[in-house]
Fold:
Amino acid sequence: MVYKKRVKTFLLGLLFFLLAGTAFSVEEYVSKVYKEIDVIFVKKAEKELENILRENVEDKYYYLMENYTKKKVRRLIIDNEYEFAMTAIYIIIDNNIDGDFEDEDAVDLYAAIAEAYEIQQAYEEEQERKAIAEAAKKEAEKEKIRTSVEKEYNVTTTSEGKTVYVSARDERTQDYKWNIKFGMIDFGVTSSKNLPHPVMGEGISIDASYEYTIPKTLVLGGDVFFDFKFMQFNSGPMSFNFEIAPKIAFPALSSNLFLRIGFSDLGVLKNKDATILARNKNLADIQNGLYGSVVSPLVGIQFDNLKVGKASLTFDANYLLSGVITGDYQALSFKGYMAIPFAELEQVKLVFNIGARDTLLILKQGGVENHLSAILGFGVENVIR
Structure:
């Protein structure tokens, strides 16, 4: 009895082992197909899904593969990926069309997906129409504002190509430029071979400039300079000098290079200054020199608004024509300024000015008379946007 019982137990155990092995092998095979389906759904590879289901349609575990595919389709529906969901369900339906049964669950699922997809499409089209209408509304509002702005403001283009709207009542573009320099300290030194020592004087000055630009054509303007040395040393005379010079530049050549034509007071020694003349023992040389106040035409060039960091430089050199007319001398004049900004208000900019002015006379009978002034002061100029 015991022997028969042991044999029976052994046979039952062997049968269980064989059945378990078969079950495990089935699970391993189906799992491999599941993994392939996972990859197919990631890639959304329609042809590969069609092939793997068609290859296994006769397999007794095909229903497991199909159910797993439907599970993946439902996940796509949750993620609103209706297009591939419809394709996958259609492949399942088509794969069963030649079979003995119709997969009603797949058909119902396809219908549900198609309806959801249609609703989604309608919603997206409606949102797109709203977005287009909103964009058109905003563009119309922008155009309305732009039209209104252009009526109240002037439109200009900067050198970088940017469009700038400038108030017509407060236009600060590069169309015009002006500045005024106040020389609070104007210290002058006059030297000549007819003087025993240089004559020095102290006074004030004013220098003004204006430029108007005709775009791409001309820059027209003018410079005006006055100085008055009311405090003299070495018993020197008081002196008053001026310079007036219209100017022109051609932007095609350079907007910073000007041609100047005007008039200038040479500031030569005055023959009434008996005190100075008496100090020179050689009166004959004095009498042969050039004396008297002379106003001369001038021609010259000017380099204006040359940038050095935030500062700007102005320099001009002129030839004075009166010497050519009389034939007694040759005369030149030079002037230079550096303007350093230190404050900017709404419409004007305040600057600190450092400058110098020099008039040089080369006498025909020999000798040189030189009038040099060092100028320190403040200035104001318009703000250019």
Observations:
- The chain has eight helices and twelve strands.
- The first strand starts at residue 153 and ends at 157.
- Residues 12-25, 271-289 have pLDDT under 50 and may be disordered.
- The CA atoms of residues 44 and 185 lie 86 Å apart.
